[in-house]
Design goal:
Largest sheet of chain A: 8 strands, mixed
Number of helices of chain A: 10
Helix content of chain A: 25-40%
Shape of chain A: globular
Strand order of the largest sheet of chain A: 6-7-8-3-9-10-12-11
Mean pLDDT of chain B: 87
Number of helices of chain B: 12
Oligomer: heterodimer
Bound molecules: adenosine-5'-triphosphate, magnesium ion
Number of strands of chain B: 0
Low-confidence stretches of chain B: none
Helix content of chain B: over 70%
Mean pLDDT of chain A: 90
Radius of gyration of chain A: 20 Å
Shape of chain B: globular
Largest interface: A-B, 30 and 21 residues
Distance between the termini of chain A: 30 Å
Low-confidence stretches of chain A: none
Strand content of chain A: 15-25%
Order of helices and strands of chain A: EEEHEEHEHHHHEHEHEEHHEE
Largest sheet of chain B: none
Amino acid sequence: MSLLEVRNLKTYFYTDAGVGKAVDDISFTLDRGKTLGIVGESGCGKSVTSLSIMRLVDTTVGRYEGGEIIFDGRDILKLPEREMQKLRGDKLSMIFQEPMTSLNPVFTVGYQISESLMLHKGMDKKQAWQRSIELLEMVGIPEPARRVDEYPHQLSGGMRQRVMIAMALSGDPELLIADEPTTALDVTIQAQILALLKSLQEQLNMAIIIITHDLGVIAEMADEVAVMYAGDIVEMAPTRELFSDPKHPYTIGLMNSIPDIEENAERLRTLEGLVPSLYDMPAGCRFAPRCQFACEQCSKSRIGLTALGGGRQVRCRRFEQ
Amino acid sequence: MGKYIRKRLLQAIPVVFGITLLTFFIMKLAPGGPLGGMISPRSSSEALQRAQEKLGLNQPIIVQYWNWLKELVQGNFGYSTFNGQNVLEMILERLPATLLLTVTSFVFSFVVGVPLGVYSATHKYSKGDYGLTVFSFIGISIPSFFFGMGMIYIFAMKLKWFPTSGFGSALFRGTGFQLFLHKLRYLVMPALVMSLANLSSVMRFARSSMIETLNQDYIRTARAKGLAERAVIYRHALKNSLIPVITIFGQSIPNLFGGAYITEKVFGWPGMGLLGVDAIGNRDYQVLMGLTLFTAILVLPGNLLADIMYSAVDPRIRY
Ligand SMILES: Nc1ncnc2c1ncn2[C@@H]1O[C@H](COP(=O)(O)OP(=O)(O)OP(=O)(O)O)[C@@H](O)[C@H]1O
Ligand SMILES: [Mg+2]
């Protein structure tokens, strides 16, 4: 049985602008010890997907409109909040995209890591503090015994991101969701962190969902890749196959926009055209307005995922039977 | 920190000097003059002359100021033009009652206002939140004398739960805890009236600050750790949301002393405010000057106190 099985998940936002289908009917599975990469342009629903799995979507505006998230045999969307709290930070943990603002400014780094250890590992203050220092050392923070006593504002963005990683790893998670875990880090540290994640993955047989704009990171880390566009998964494939033979026009566009070394750009060069507004989605294929292969039919009705064999799926009329 | 406090105290010296200037010259500008209340159409001009000479009022104004300041520095606030009593003694005699009233209502407005604000924020748009919002708007907009008289009418005259005015009855013979309870009954209404406006604004402030804090990324991090909602709110959010509330802590101290004039008059509370209102009626300039100066000096440490509290709550602030 897979560790995680997401089936037809829909997460919608109800705002003054209308209903925003941020995640619209996505499905995927992930086994223990495996890594799923999620790529896609800004706003396509990557973070909302991860927050849905953590069940941390802001419920004053957001709603789970349907679907199931089966983690370890239980549907997360149906768990009582108490049970959910036991999972979060323990078997299920997440590294957030915003390293500068994700740590509480009024508590020391050590306190914030210890808190999690005392909660889930039953450690006392002293043990948790000691373990916090070890975790900081593990994620490559120099002088961890001094840093543990510092406040977030005393640390650089990269350091804070590593503190976040240490915190997420403190519970020895079965599933780690890493939302742009290395964006704030320079290249050497980035490589170091990715290597660390990989070695921990082997040790703990941990599953990882890694979200990134950096196709290089995907190539290095992921076993399988989900390409998201405007709340949809448009293509799903084993990493090697995706890179050697992308099927969906959007994926092809992404591959072509990988920056040259000379350009030295951190983000994907954007494809031509704009992502449709969340509140004004095209009726048919959502990528059609930007697609060079689009024909009249594409804009008429929603297009389903087509299984191509070899674990590949694509959402494009050209592959429909 | 110690160095910072010393620096701030030194900075206060020119401020106090400025306050003496303002106090003195504003009083001089006031029409009537200190003798206005003592003369009648039948007073002879020699008598007036003699009185002026006695008080030094015939000297140039700068000299008058200088003489007043010289005495002040030695701790002499002058003598009441109305009854000849030592002004400083009059003020010090009234100080405990005023401090009791202001400190009680101040503490009350924060101890009650902050939790109510937190409740409002965590139950945003609920019936309770709407109720508290209406309450706070009423609290901010009702003038305290109106509220005070309403309270006296209902709770003192009709229900007879509390005495109408004063601070203890001369006939009461109890001691110890009995005396404490007796005095407490006199304190309840004026303290409530005085804290109402402040409590309301503390509540509004705590509410919006808490709502903003709960939207921060680090709150999501705290939830992602698996903390229960109570720990998220009271451990992670509360401390952060108190930082802006400290600002009104510093700002509301002067308001309270100002408010004491009205509240003390309404409740016949024997404090500095009542002394001030009586002094206005008596054109007792020496007492008014003394009170203004004294209150200003009392209020000055308020901002310093707020700064110290900032640095206690927020590790990013270091002096
Ligand atoms: N709390 C919210 N209220 C309303 N809309 C939201 C909310 N959170 C996310 N959205 C919307 O959902 C969509 C998907 O957002 P999401 O954060 O998942 O994008 P993303 O793929 O992570 O982008 P990025 O690469 O910039 O992080 C966006 O259009 C966003 O505006
Ligand atoms: Mg995101």
